[in-house]
Amino acid sequence: MGAVFSHDGTGDHFCTGSVVDSPKKSIVITAAHCLHGGKGGGYQTDLAFVPGYRDGQAPNGTWKITKMIVDDRWTQSSDPAFDVGFAVVDKLDGKRIADVLGANRFGYNVGYDNHVKITGYPASGEDPISCANTTVKFQTDQMKVDCTGYSGGTSGSPWLANFDRTTRTGEVVGVIGGYQTGGDTDDISYSPYFNDAIKSLYDKAVSTEG
After folding, report:
1. Which of 21, 69, 152, 168 is the most buried (most CB within 10 A)?
2. Cα–Cα distance between 38 and 128 in angstroms, integer?
């Protein structure tokens, strides 16, 4: 897990992301609204991903985001069912991010009820917060979960099922986003349901890896 920063890592952190497994080991998953403003908006510029960020420190380096992949249904109509985005990060010191940190698996069509671990970075602080709880169905294309304190900045936080405490990885089955861009209260969060359409978006991201 890590924080998404503006201005190539020198600005503020405003979203959360995580590394997801891919053939060329360079993809981060987050919420689409972290990367693109939706209908009437455009793509963010000069973003960086800082995994393991804590107390102003970047122990695992600052990784420049070079490509952003979101669904047209998000860019054209801000459809909350497609508030999922993928970012490709450049190599750092000649190494790919998943080789350095490991990666979570991408999960889809896993059902609405899953026990998940969620870690995110509130914009108001310098440390991540974590919560574990069971997700439930909110709408056909949305899930929700009760977790306390997930304020602005936690958008894009991965919902990890089958979390392995040894490898510190799991299966990403959701991200904070979707309905109300993730929720308008700090204690209930939402995610688009990862279905075949989200899998197609993941496949598109994989095809853009350098």
Report:
1. 69
2. 26
| Burial environment of residue 7 by CB neighbours within 10 A (0 to 12, 13 to 18, 19 or more) | exposed
Spatial distance between the Cα atoms of 17 and 28, rounded to a whole number of angstroms: 6
Half-sphere exposure of 117 (CA within 13 A, CB side): 15
pLDDT tens by residue, 112-161 = 999 999 999 999 999 999 999 999 999 999 999 999 999 999 999 999 99
d(CA 8, CA 20): 21
CA-to-CA distance for 9 and 166, rounded, in angstroms?
29
pTM over 0.90: yes
Residue 64 tokens read as 């420049």
Q: For 84-98, what is each residue's pLDDT tens digit?
A: 999 999 999 999 999
Rounded CA-CA distance 17/208 in Å is: 18
What is the predicted pLDDT for the residue at 10?
85
Burial class (CB in 10 A: 0-12, 13-18, 19+), 25: buried
Q: What domains are defined for the chain?
A: 2-103+197-208 (2.40.10.10), 105-195 (2.40.10.10)
